[in-house]
Automatic annotation (TrEMBL):
Limits of the CBM1 domain: 473-510
Gene Ontology cellular-component terms listed: extracellular region
Swiss-Prot/TrEMBL catalytic activity: Hydrolysis of (1->4)-beta-D-glucosidic linkages in cellulose and cellotetraose, releasing cellobiose from the non-reducing ends of the chains
Species this protein is from: Flammulina velutipes (Agaricus velutipes)
Alphabetized CDD domains for the sequence: GH7_CBH_EG
PROSITE patterns: CBM1_2
Annotated protein name in UniProt: Glucanase
Length: 510
Protein backbone atom coordinates (compact mmCIF):
# COMPACT_ATOMS: atom_id res chain seq x y z
CA UNK A 1 0.00 0.00 0.00
CA UNK A 2 2.85 2.35 0.83
CA UNK A 3 6.42 2.60 -0.33
CA UNK A 4 8.40 0.14 1.74
CA UNK A 5 11.81 1.28 2.95
CA UNK A 6 14.77 -1.05 2.43
CA UNK A 7 16.25 -0.81 5.91
CA UNK A 8 19.40 -2.70 5.05
CA UNK A 9 20.50 0.04 2.68
CA UNK A 10 20.56 2.64 5.45
CA UNK A 11 24.11 3.85 6.03
CA UNK A 12 23.66 3.66 9.80
CA UNK A 13 23.99 -0.10 9.52
CA UNK A 14 27.65 -0.43 8.66
CA UNK A 15 28.88 -3.91 9.51
CA UNK A 16 31.11 -4.25 12.57
CA UNK A 17 31.78 -6.99 15.06
CA UNK A 18 28.73 -7.58 17.16
CA UNK A 19 26.84 -6.34 20.13
CA UNK A 20 27.87 -8.97 22.69
CA UNK A 21 26.05 -11.12 25.24
CA UNK A 22 27.20 -11.17 28.87
CA UNK A 23 27.96 -14.33 30.83
CA UNK A 24 27.76 -13.09 34.43
CA UNK A 25 24.02 -13.63 34.99
CA UNK A 26 21.97 -16.39 33.37
CA UNK A 27 19.02 -15.13 31.36
CA UNK A 28 15.93 -17.00 32.58
CA UNK A 29 12.67 -15.78 31.09
CA UNK A 30 9.68 -15.65 33.48
CA UNK A 31 6.95 -17.97 32.19
CA UNK A 32 3.51 -16.66 31.24
CA UNK A 33 0.48 -18.61 30.03
CA UNK A 34 -1.70 -17.15 27.28
CA UNK A 35 -4.70 -18.69 25.52
CA UNK A 36 -5.48 -19.17 21.84
CA UNK A 37 -9.23 -19.41 21.25
CA UNK A 38 -11.29 -20.80 18.38
CA UNK A 39 -14.76 -19.98 17.07
CA UNK A 40 -17.32 -21.02 19.65
CA UNK A 41 -15.14 -20.06 22.61
CA UNK A 42 -12.92 -23.11 23.12
CA UNK A 43 -9.45 -21.98 24.19
CA UNK A 44 -6.09 -23.73 24.45
CA UNK A 45 -3.36 -22.68 26.86
CA UNK A 46 0.04 -21.78 25.40
CA UNK A 47 3.11 -21.81 27.61
CA UNK A 48 5.07 -18.68 26.76
CA UNK A 49 7.39 -16.29 28.61
CA UNK A 50 8.39 -12.63 28.78
CA UNK A 51 11.71 -10.90 28.21
CA UNK A 52 13.02 -7.59 29.53
CA UNK A 53 13.80 -4.86 27.01
CA UNK A 54 17.52 -4.47 26.34
CA UNK A 55 17.46 -0.77 27.23
CA UNK A 56 16.95 -1.65 30.91
CA UNK A 57 19.81 -4.15 31.04
CA UNK A 58 23.28 -3.82 32.46
CA UNK A 59 25.63 -2.94 29.60
CA UNK A 60 29.25 -3.66 30.41
CA UNK A 61 32.67 -4.44 28.99
CA UNK A 62 32.39 -7.82 27.27
CA UNK A 63 35.78 -8.83 28.70
CA UNK A 64 34.97 -7.85 32.27
CA UNK A 65 32.42 -5.94 34.30
CA UNK A 66 33.19 -2.27 33.68
CA UNK A 67 30.06 -0.29 32.87
CA UNK A 68 29.70 0.80 29.27
CA UNK A 69 26.83 3.02 30.37
CA UNK A 70 26.49 4.71 33.75
CA UNK A 71 23.57 6.92 34.73
CA UNK A 72 22.72 8.52 31.40
CA UNK A 73 26.16 8.58 29.80
CA UNK A 74 28.23 6.16 27.71
CA UNK A 75 31.81 5.44 28.80
CA UNK A 76 33.95 7.08 26.11
CA UNK A 77 36.85 4.70 26.66
CA UNK A 78 34.64 1.79 25.60
CA UNK A 79 32.16 3.67 23.44
CA UNK A 80 34.23 6.31 21.70
CA UNK A 81 32.57 5.39 18.40
CA UNK A 82 29.38 3.42 17.61
CA UNK A 83 31.55 0.64 16.16
CA UNK A 84 33.73 0.42 19.26
CA UNK A 85 30.76 0.39 21.60
CA UNK A 86 29.02 -2.30 19.56
CA UNK A 87 32.14 -4.45 19.66
CA UNK A 88 33.24 -3.79 23.25
CA UNK A 89 29.96 -3.99 25.15
CA UNK A 90 27.69 -6.83 26.24
CA UNK A 91 24.07 -7.03 27.38
CA UNK A 92 23.76 -8.96 30.62
CA UNK A 93 21.09 -11.37 31.82
CA UNK A 94 18.42 -9.96 34.13
CA UNK A 95 17.35 -10.72 37.69
CA UNK A 96 13.71 -10.03 36.96
CA UNK A 97 12.12 -9.92 40.42
CA UNK A 98 15.07 -8.68 42.47
CA UNK A 99 16.29 -5.87 40.23
CA UNK A 100 13.23 -4.92 38.17
CA UNK A 101 10.14 -5.91 40.19
CA UNK A 102 8.88 -8.18 37.40
CA UNK A 103 7.08 -11.36 38.48
CA UNK A 104 4.76 -13.89 36.87
CA UNK A 105 2.35 -16.49 38.22
CA UNK A 106 0.44 -18.69 35.79
CA UNK A 107 -1.32 -16.30 33.40
CA UNK A 108 -0.54 -13.14 35.41
CA UNK A 109 2.30 -10.64 34.96
CA UNK A 110 2.98 -8.08 37.69
CA UNK A 111 5.12 -5.00 37.02
CA UNK A 112 6.22 -2.93 40.02
CA UNK A 113 7.05 0.72 39.41
CA UNK A 114 10.16 1.28 41.58
CA UNK A 115 12.49 -1.50 42.70
CA UNK A 116 15.69 -0.28 44.30
CA UNK A 117 17.33 2.06 41.78
CA UNK A 118 15.21 0.78 38.90
CA UNK A 119 12.22 2.78 37.63
CA UNK A 120 9.59 1.22 35.35
CA UNK A 121 10.01 -1.66 32.94
CA UNK A 122 9.08 -2.92 29.49
CA UNK A 123 8.73 -6.58 28.55
CA UNK A 124 7.80 -8.52 25.41
CA UNK A 125 5.92 -11.78 24.98
CA UNK A 126 8.19 -14.52 23.65
CA UNK A 127 7.16 -17.42 21.43
CA UNK A 128 10.30 -19.31 22.43
CA UNK A 129 13.57 -18.29 24.06
CA UNK A 130 14.92 -16.69 20.88
CA UNK A 131 11.84 -15.26 19.16
CA UNK A 132 9.02 -12.89 19.99
CA UNK A 133 5.48 -14.14 19.53
CA UNK A 134 4.09 -12.53 16.37
CA UNK A 135 0.44 -11.47 16.15
CA UNK A 136 -1.82 -10.66 13.21
CA UNK A 137 -5.13 -9.52 14.71
CA UNK A 138 -7.05 -8.69 11.54
CA UNK A 139 -10.53 -10.20 11.89
CA UNK A 140 -9.53 -11.27 15.41
CA UNK A 141 -10.00 -10.04 18.95
CA UNK A 142 -7.53 -9.66 21.78
CA UNK A 143 -8.61 -9.84 25.42
CA UNK A 144 -6.86 -9.48 28.77
CA UNK A 145 -7.61 -8.69 32.39
CA UNK A 146 -5.94 -5.74 34.06
CA UNK A 147 -5.70 -4.31 37.56
CA UNK A 148 -4.91 -0.58 37.52
CA UNK A 149 -6.13 0.14 41.05
CA UNK A 150 -2.60 0.98 42.20
CA UNK A 151 -1.74 3.32 39.33
CA UNK A 152 -2.19 7.00 40.31
CA UNK A 153 -1.99 10.17 38.22
CA UNK A 154 1.23 10.37 36.19
CA UNK A 155 1.69 6.63 35.68
CA UNK A 156 0.88 4.53 32.63
CA UNK A 157 0.33 0.79 32.57
CA UNK A 158 0.57 0.24 28.83
CA UNK A 159 -0.19 -2.90 26.81
CA UNK A 160 0.39 -2.50 23.09
CA UNK A 161 1.75 -3.93 19.85
CA UNK A 162 4.68 -2.69 17.75
CA UNK A 163 6.05 -3.84 14.39
CA UNK A 164 9.31 -5.35 15.66
CA UNK A 165 11.21 -8.17 14.00
CA UNK A 166 10.52 -11.67 15.30
CA UNK A 167 14.11 -12.34 16.36
CA UNK A 168 14.83 -8.79 17.55
CA UNK A 169 16.89 -8.06 14.42
CA UNK A 170 19.47 -10.78 14.98
CA UNK A 171 19.23 -12.22 11.46
CA UNK A 172 18.95 -8.85 9.69
CA UNK A 173 21.94 -7.28 11.42
CA UNK A 174 25.04 -9.38 11.97
CA UNK A 175 26.17 -6.90 14.61
CA UNK A 176 23.28 -7.96 16.86
CA UNK A 177 24.43 -11.07 18.74
CA UNK A 178 21.79 -10.76 21.49
CA UNK A 179 18.46 -10.77 19.65
CA UNK A 180 15.03 -11.35 21.13
CA UNK A 181 16.49 -13.48 23.94
CA UNK A 182 17.83 -10.24 25.43
CA UNK A 183 14.99 -7.95 24.37
CA UNK A 184 16.56 -6.12 21.41
CA UNK A 185 14.90 -4.40 18.48
CA UNK A 186 12.40 -2.04 20.09
CA UNK A 187 10.69 0.69 18.08
CA UNK A 188 7.45 2.65 18.22
CA UNK A 189 5.59 5.48 16.53
CA UNK A 190 7.30 8.16 18.63
CA UNK A 191 10.61 7.21 16.97
CA UNK A 192 12.36 7.21 20.37
CA UNK A 193 15.95 8.46 20.47
CA UNK A 194 16.68 6.94 23.88
CA UNK A 195 17.29 3.42 22.49
CA UNK A 196 20.94 2.56 23.16
CA UNK A 197 21.25 0.13 20.22
CA UNK A 198 19.26 0.47 17.00
CA UNK A 199 19.44 -2.21 14.33
CA UNK A 200 22.54 -3.77 15.83
CA UNK A 201 24.61 -0.64 16.32
CA UNK A 202 25.22 1.62 19.31
CA UNK A 203 23.32 4.91 19.17
CA UNK A 204 26.19 6.90 20.68
CA UNK A 205 26.52 9.63 18.04
CA UNK A 206 25.28 12.88 19.53
CA UNK A 207 24.22 11.11 22.72
CA UNK A 208 23.14 13.65 25.35
CA UNK A 209 22.03 12.83 28.89
CA UNK A 210 18.51 13.90 29.75
CA UNK A 211 18.30 17.07 31.88
CA UNK A 212 15.46 15.59 34.00
CA UNK A 213 16.05 11.83 33.89
CA UNK A 214 19.19 10.46 35.52
CA UNK A 215 18.89 7.14 33.65
CA UNK A 216 18.11 8.26 30.11
CA UNK A 217 19.46 10.25 27.20
CA UNK A 218 19.01 10.67 23.47
CA UNK A 219 21.15 9.82 20.46
CA UNK A 220 21.24 10.95 16.85
CA UNK A 221 18.93 8.18 15.63
CA UNK A 222 15.39 7.21 16.50
CA UNK A 223 13.70 3.82 16.19
CA UNK A 224 10.44 4.08 14.23
CA UNK A 225 7.64 1.61 13.55
CA UNK A 226 3.86 1.30 13.65
CA UNK A 227 2.21 0.98 17.05
CA UNK A 228 -1.21 -0.17 18.23
CA UNK A 229 -1.90 1.00 21.76
CA UNK A 230 -4.47 -1.47 23.03
CA UNK A 231 -4.34 0.00 26.51
CA UNK A 232 -2.69 3.08 27.99
CA UNK A 233 -4.16 3.63 31.40
CA UNK A 234 -4.03 4.32 35.10
CA UNK A 235 -6.84 4.39 37.66
CA UNK A 236 -8.07 7.75 36.36
CA UNK A 237 -8.08 7.56 32.55
CA UNK A 238 -7.56 5.13 29.69
CA UNK A 239 -7.12 5.34 25.93
CA UNK A 240 -6.67 3.03 22.97
CA UNK A 241 -4.93 4.38 19.91
CA UNK A 242 -3.60 3.16 16.54
CA UNK A 243 -0.47 4.92 15.19
CA UNK A 244 0.61 4.34 11.59
CA UNK A 245 3.89 4.89 9.76
CA UNK A 246 4.89 5.25 6.12
CA UNK A 247 7.65 2.67 6.66
CA UNK A 248 7.22 -1.05 7.32
CA UNK A 249 9.24 -4.10 8.21
CA UNK A 250 10.58 -3.49 11.69
CA UNK A 251 12.67 -0.70 13.26
CA UNK A 252 13.51 2.12 10.88
CA UNK A 253 16.52 4.13 12.06
CA UNK A 254 15.34 7.68 11.45
CA UNK A 255 17.56 10.74 11.39
CA UNK A 256 16.74 14.43 11.27
CA UNK A 257 13.38 15.55 9.94
CA UNK A 258 12.11 12.03 9.27
CA UNK A 259 12.03 11.43 13.05
CA UNK A 260 9.30 14.08 13.42
CA UNK A 261 10.96 15.80 16.35
CA UNK A 262 10.00 19.17 17.82
CA UNK A 263 8.34 21.58 15.41
CA UNK A 264 8.50 18.92 12.68
CA UNK A 265 6.12 16.61 14.57
CA UNK A 266 3.89 16.03 11.54
CA UNK A 267 6.71 15.80 9.01
CA UNK A 268 8.21 12.52 10.16
CA UNK A 269 7.63 8.98 8.92
CA UNK A 270 5.26 8.07 11.79
CA UNK A 271 1.98 9.40 13.15
CA UNK A 272 2.78 10.44 16.70
CA UNK A 273 -0.71 11.59 17.70
CA UNK A 274 -2.63 8.55 16.52
CA UNK A 275 -6.42 8.34 16.48
CA UNK A 276 -7.27 7.95 20.15
CA UNK A 277 -10.40 7.00 22.03
CA UNK A 278 -10.35 8.23 25.64
CA UNK A 279 -13.86 8.21 27.13
CA UNK A 280 -13.20 11.26 29.30
CA UNK A 281 -11.76 13.17 26.35
CA UNK A 282 -14.88 12.24 24.36
CA UNK A 283 -16.99 13.95 27.02
CA UNK A 284 -18.24 10.99 29.08
CA UNK A 285 -16.74 11.81 32.48
CA UNK A 286 -18.70 9.12 34.36
CA UNK A 287 -17.59 6.04 32.39
CA UNK A 288 -14.05 5.14 33.57
CA UNK A 289 -12.48 5.60 36.98
CA UNK A 290 -12.89 4.72 40.66
CA UNK A 291 -16.54 3.81 41.31
CA UNK A 292 -17.63 4.65 37.76
CA UNK A 293 -19.27 2.46 35.11
CA UNK A 294 -15.91 0.78 34.56
CA UNK A 295 -14.69 0.72 38.15
CA UNK A 296 -10.91 0.94 38.32
CA UNK A 297 -10.81 -0.22 41.92
CA UNK A 298 -11.57 -3.70 40.55
CA UNK A 299 -10.14 -5.97 37.86
CA UNK A 300 -11.28 -5.17 34.32
CA UNK A 301 -11.56 -7.44 31.30
CA UNK A 302 -10.66 -5.51 28.16
CA UNK A 303 -11.75 -6.80 24.73
CA UNK A 304 -10.50 -5.23 21.50
CA UNK A 305 -11.92 -6.37 18.15
CA UNK A 306 -10.27 -5.72 14.78
CA UNK A 307 -13.04 -5.63 12.15
CA UNK A 308 -12.19 -5.96 8.45
CA UNK A 309 -14.07 -4.91 5.32
CA UNK A 310 -14.91 -8.47 4.25
CA UNK A 311 -14.94 -10.32 7.56
CA UNK A 312 -11.70 -12.16 6.80
CA UNK A 313 -8.03 -11.67 7.60
CA UNK A 314 -7.52 -10.65 3.95
CA UNK A 315 -9.75 -7.59 4.09
CA UNK A 316 -8.65 -4.08 5.00
CA UNK A 317 -8.98 -3.08 8.64
CA UNK A 318 -12.02 -0.80 8.94
CA UNK A 319 -12.88 -0.60 12.64
CA UNK A 320 -11.31 -1.16 16.06
CA UNK A 321 -14.02 -1.88 18.62
CA UNK A 322 -13.78 -1.90 22.42
CA UNK A 323 -15.87 -3.96 24.88
CA UNK A 324 -15.44 -4.35 28.64
CA UNK A 325 -16.48 -7.12 31.01
CA UNK A 326 -16.67 -6.44 34.72
CA UNK A 327 -18.56 -8.16 37.54
CA UNK A 328 -19.94 -10.65 35.02
CA UNK A 329 -21.49 -7.90 32.90
CA UNK A 330 -20.60 -7.04 29.30
CA UNK A 331 -20.32 -3.27 28.89
CA UNK A 332 -20.04 -1.67 25.46
CA UNK A 333 -17.67 1.25 25.08
CA UNK A 334 -18.93 4.74 25.91
CA UNK A 335 -20.26 7.13 23.29
CA UNK A 336 -19.05 10.68 22.91
CA UNK A 337 -21.23 13.44 24.33
CA UNK A 338 -20.20 15.94 21.65
CA UNK A 339 -22.99 16.28 19.04
CA UNK A 340 -20.72 15.75 16.03
CA UNK A 341 -19.21 12.64 17.63
CA UNK A 342 -22.28 11.26 19.43
CA UNK A 343 -22.77 8.28 17.13
CA UNK A 344 -19.24 6.93 17.67
CA UNK A 345 -18.00 4.49 20.31
CA UNK A 346 -15.29 2.78 18.25
CA UNK A 347 -12.41 3.82 16.02
CA UNK A 348 -13.27 4.17 12.33
CA UNK A 349 -11.95 6.48 9.60
CA UNK A 350 -15.14 8.52 9.90
CA UNK A 351 -14.70 8.85 13.66
CA UNK A 352 -11.04 9.86 13.32
CA UNK A 353 -11.84 12.56 10.79
CA UNK A 354 -14.73 13.95 12.85
CA UNK A 355 -12.71 13.88 16.07
CA UNK A 356 -9.68 15.59 14.55
CA UNK A 357 -11.92 18.28 13.06
CA UNK A 358 -13.75 19.01 16.33
CA UNK A 359 -10.60 18.99 18.46
CA UNK A 360 -8.58 21.02 15.95
CA UNK A 361 -5.93 18.30 15.61
CA UNK A 362 -3.83 17.43 12.56
CA UNK A 363 -5.01 14.17 10.98
CA UNK A 364 -1.56 12.64 10.55
CA UNK A 365 -3.19 9.24 11.08
CA UNK A 366 -5.02 9.50 7.75
CA UNK A 367 -1.95 11.01 6.09
CA UNK A 368 -0.05 7.79 6.81
CA UNK A 369 -2.71 5.41 5.61
CA UNK A 370 -5.14 5.21 8.52
CA UNK A 371 -6.73 1.92 9.54
CA UNK A 372 -5.78 0.10 6.34
CA UNK A 373 -2.11 0.83 7.03
CA UNK A 374 -2.54 -0.36 10.61
CA UNK A 375 -3.90 -3.61 9.18
CA UNK A 376 -0.89 -3.87 6.86
CA UNK A 377 1.40 -3.68 9.87
CA UNK A 378 -0.49 -6.51 11.53
CA UNK A 379 -0.10 -8.56 8.35
CA UNK A 380 3.65 -7.99 8.64
CA UNK A 381 3.43 -9.18 12.24
CA UNK A 382 3.47 -7.29 15.53
CA UNK A 383 4.96 -7.98 18.96
CA UNK A 384 3.11 -7.66 22.28
CA UNK A 385 4.60 -5.15 24.73
CA UNK A 386 3.64 -4.68 28.40
CA UNK A 387 5.06 -1.86 30.48
CA UNK A 388 4.80 0.54 33.39
CA UNK A 389 6.29 4.02 33.10
CA UNK A 390 6.22 7.68 34.09
CA UNK A 391 6.56 10.57 31.69
CA UNK A 392 9.61 12.84 31.79
CA UNK A 393 8.35 14.83 28.80
CA UNK A 394 4.86 16.07 29.78
CA UNK A 395 4.05 14.28 33.07
CA UNK A 396 1.36 12.03 31.47
CA UNK A 397 -0.97 15.03 31.21
CA UNK A 398 -1.95 13.90 27.69
CA UNK A 399 -3.56 10.80 29.26
CA UNK A 400 -5.14 11.91 32.54
CA UNK A 401 -5.29 15.72 32.81
CA UNK A 402 -5.94 18.78 30.63
CA UNK A 403 -3.56 19.01 27.68
CA UNK A 404 -2.06 20.89 25.87
CA UNK A 405 -1.31 23.44 28.53
CA UNK A 406 -1.83 26.43 26.24
CA UNK A 407 -5.52 25.63 25.66
CA UNK A 408 -8.45 26.18 28.07
CA UNK A 409 -9.71 23.04 29.78
CA UNK A 410 -13.18 23.79 28.41
CA UNK A 411 -12.11 23.43 24.75
CA UNK A 412 -13.29 20.15 23.16
CA UNK A 413 -10.71 17.43 23.54
CA UNK A 414 -8.47 19.20 26.05
CA UNK A 415 -9.78 17.57 29.24
CA UNK A 416 -8.60 13.95 29.34
CA UNK A 417 -9.07 13.11 33.04
CA UNK A 418 -9.43 14.52 36.52
CA UNK A 419 -5.73 14.80 37.39
CA UNK A 420 -4.36 18.27 38.08
CA UNK A 421 -2.18 20.00 35.54
CA UNK A 422 0.44 20.10 38.29
CA UNK A 423 0.37 16.33 38.76
CA UNK A 424 2.50 13.56 37.31
CA UNK A 425 5.97 14.98 37.81
CA UNK A 426 8.29 11.94 37.78
CA UNK A 427 10.18 13.04 40.88
CA UNK A 428 6.87 13.23 42.77
CA UNK A 429 5.44 9.97 41.45
CA UNK A 430 8.66 8.04 42.09
CA UNK A 431 8.89 9.40 45.63
CA UNK A 432 5.22 9.09 46.61
CA UNK A 433 4.15 5.94 44.72
CA UNK A 434 7.16 3.60 44.48
CA UNK A 435 4.97 0.56 45.17
CA UNK A 436 2.58 1.30 42.31
CA UNK A 437 1.93 -1.83 40.25
CA UNK A 438 -0.01 -3.03 37.26
CA UNK A 439 -1.15 -6.64 36.77
CA UNK A 440 -1.90 -8.04 33.31
CA UNK A 441 -3.50 -11.48 33.22
CA UNK A 442 -5.73 -13.94 31.33
CA UNK A 443 -4.47 -12.93 27.87
CA UNK A 444 -6.53 -14.48 25.07
CA UNK A 445 -6.72 -14.07 21.31
CA UNK A 446 -8.87 -15.61 18.61
CA UNK A 447 -11.83 -15.07 16.26
CA UNK A 448 -14.35 -12.32 17.01
CA UNK A 449 -16.52 -13.34 19.95
CA UNK A 450 -14.35 -16.23 21.14
CA UNK A 451 -12.38 -14.78 24.05
CA UNK A 452 -14.84 -13.42 26.60
CA UNK A 453 -18.13 -14.20 28.33
CA UNK A 454 -20.66 -12.47 30.53
CA UNK A 455 -19.73 -14.78 33.39
CA UNK A 456 -16.07 -13.78 33.18
CA UNK A 457 -15.22 -17.44 33.47
CA UNK A 458 -13.01 -20.14 32.09
CA UNK A 459 -11.24 -20.23 28.72
CA UNK A 460 -13.91 -22.58 27.34
CA UNK A 461 -16.79 -20.17 27.85
CA UNK A 462 -18.42 -18.71 24.72
CA UNK A 463 -19.74 -15.15 24.41
CA UNK A 464 -23.01 -14.52 26.29
CA UNK A 465 -25.79 -16.52 24.67
CA UNK A 466 -29.25 -17.80 25.35
CA UNK A 467 -29.45 -21.58 25.70
CA UNK A 468 -32.91 -22.04 24.28
CA UNK A 469 -34.24 -22.09 20.73
CA UNK A 470 -37.86 -21.89 21.75
CA UNK A 471 -40.19 -19.67 19.80
CA UNK A 472 -39.63 -16.02 20.70
CA UNK A 473 -36.16 -16.54 22.19
CA UNK A 474 -33.85 -13.57 21.69
CA UNK A 475 -30.13 -13.13 21.99
CA UNK A 476 -28.49 -10.55 24.27
CA UNK A 477 -26.39 -7.73 22.84
CA UNK A 478 -22.93 -8.97 21.82
CA UNK A 479 -24.13 -12.59 21.94
CA UNK A 480 -23.86 -14.98 18.98
CA UNK A 481 -26.87 -14.95 16.66
CA UNK A 482 -25.70 -16.97 13.68
CA UNK A 483 -22.88 -18.70 11.87
CA UNK A 484 -21.77 -22.15 10.81
CA UNK A 485 -23.34 -24.78 13.06
CA UNK A 486 -25.22 -22.23 15.18
CA UNK A 487 -28.50 -23.58 16.63
CA UNK A 488 -29.30 -20.83 19.11
CA UNK A 489 -31.55 -17.78 18.75
CA UNK A 490 -31.16 -15.60 15.68
CA UNK A 491 -33.29 -12.66 16.84
CA UNK A 492 -31.52 -9.98 18.82
CA UNK A 493 -32.78 -8.12 21.87
CA UNK A 494 -34.26 -4.68 21.30
CA UNK A 495 -31.68 -2.10 20.33
CA UNK A 496 -29.37 -4.47 18.47
CA UNK A 497 -29.41 -6.40 15.18
CA UNK A 498 -27.71 -9.59 14.02
CA UNK A 499 -24.63 -8.80 11.90
CA UNK A 500 -22.11 -11.05 10.24
CA UNK A 501 -18.75 -10.43 11.89
CA UNK A 502 -16.73 -13.33 10.53
CA UNK A 503 -18.82 -14.79 7.71
CA UNK A 504 -19.89 -17.51 7.42
CA UNK A 505 -18.65 -18.64 10.83
CA UNK A 506 -19.87 -16.04 13.28
CA UNK A 507 -22.62 -13.40 13.58
CA UNK A 508 -23.13 -11.17 16.61
CA UNK A 509 -25.91 -8.97 18.03
CA UNK A 510 -24.70 -5.41 17.78
Amino acid sequence: MFNKVALLSFTFLAVVLGQQVGTLTAEVHPSLTVSKCSAGGSCTAENKSVVLDSNWRWLHDAKGSTNCYTGNTFDKSLCGTPEACTTNCALEGAEYAKTYGITTSGDALTLKFVTGANVGSRVYLLDDDNNYKIFNLKNQEFTFDVDVSKLPCGLNGALYFVEMEKDGGKASYTTNKAGAKYGTGYCDSQCPHDIKFINGKANTLGWTGSPNDSNSGTGQYGACCAEMDIWEANSISSAYTPHTCSVYGGPYACEGTECGDGDNRYGGVCDKDGCDFNSYRQGDTSFYGPGKTIDTTKKITVVTQFITTDGTANGDLKEIRRIYVQNGKVVENSYSTYPTLAKYNSITEEYCSAQKTLFGDTNSFADRGGLAAMGDSYENGMVLVMSIWDDHAVNMLWLNSAYPLDKPETDPGVARGTCSRDSGKPEDVEKNSPDATVIYSNIKYGPIGSTYSSTGGSPTNAPPTSTTTASGATQTKYGQCGGTGWTGPTVCAAGSTCKEVSPPYYSQCQ
